[in-house]
Amino acid sequence: MSRKSKILSNAELSAFCQQISLIIAAGLPTYYGVSILCDEAPDKQTRDLLEQIYKPMELGATLHSALKDTGYFPKYMINMIQLGEETGRLEEVLNSLSKYYDREDEIASGIKSAVAYPLVLSAVMIAVIVVMIAKVLPVFSQIYAELGSELTGTAAVLMKLSEYINRYLLVIIAFMLFAALVLFIFFKTLFGKKFLMKTALSMSIASSRFANCMFLALSSGLDTDRGLDLAQALVNNPVLDSKINDCRKNISNGETFSEALLHSNIFSKMYSSWIAIGSKTGSMDEVMQHICTSCEDDTDARLSRFISVIEPAMVILLCIFIGFILVSFLLPLLGIISSIG
């Protein structure tokens, strides 16, 4: 486990939950299991962190309080472990948390790939275009000059553009870097984050988190109000947060949980109908798990579609631009050569 950041990574959280779950399944006391993990820690940083957990537990502290005192575990995980300890379902909760953080790690990796790939491709495309205009076009201009002809039409415009780019190349590069920095800072601001969180992909991820949290809460024996409290703290999406508040108001006005979810538009009508059936059959937690899985599949599909569309689109744009430049210069050049011949 790395201690470079205050909160452990999703992969580290998943591994920890899985290990503690195996310890409980083996019938060992939790604190004793943590001591075993401490002895087998692969590095000093991990050992120090596990010792921070083990020492208070040896004196009688609960797992969730020991984790909380370290400051390296998220509030949601601590709350869910506390529920597991209070309801006697700690092993199930830890297994569910392990799967949850595995999924969060997959989503984070998918988003990084979906964002990084188009950015790299865009940078390469811009570099190719700049090189074409700044370095290749002057070669054509020299050929025209040697043939005793002048550039006209589109070719002349492009040649003029080439001269400006060569003259102000450093300024253009500086401006592009500044624009990239401004864009990066914008998406780090509250307004920028809200803008991103309104996208279909962000809403799909938030809905998946909400459904998973409600599944864990309901399967642990909590009521819907407590489940909504946990979910609202977890989703970290202002749009969905507003919808959860609407759901609370609807419940306080006498609506059932399924009716409140439908009217607050947290889920689509199809998912809301699943919830209505789950409410009548007493299988609400299972329905939430199915909704979570469905939202995860939708997230995967959106990421795959984005990557599959952006690659050919970038390549096509680059080919069109290069083809346009070549046609603008080569067609008049072929005409001159044929007239000379």
UniProtKB/TrEMBL annotation:
GO terms for cellular component: plasma membrane. Residues 16-138, 210-332 form the Type II secretion system protein GspF domain. The chain crosses the membrane at residues 119-145, 165-187, 313-337. Its main location: membrane. Belongs to the GSP F family. This is Fimbrial assembly protein PilC. The keyword Manganese does not apply. It is found in: Cell inner membrane. It is a multi-pass membrane protein. Pfam families: T2SSF (PF00482). It comes from the Bacteria. Keywords: Cell inner membrane, Cell membrane, Membrane, Transmembrane, Transmembrane helix. The keyword Cell inner membrane applies. The lineage of its organism: Bacteria, Bacillati, Bacillota, Clostridia, Lachnospirales.
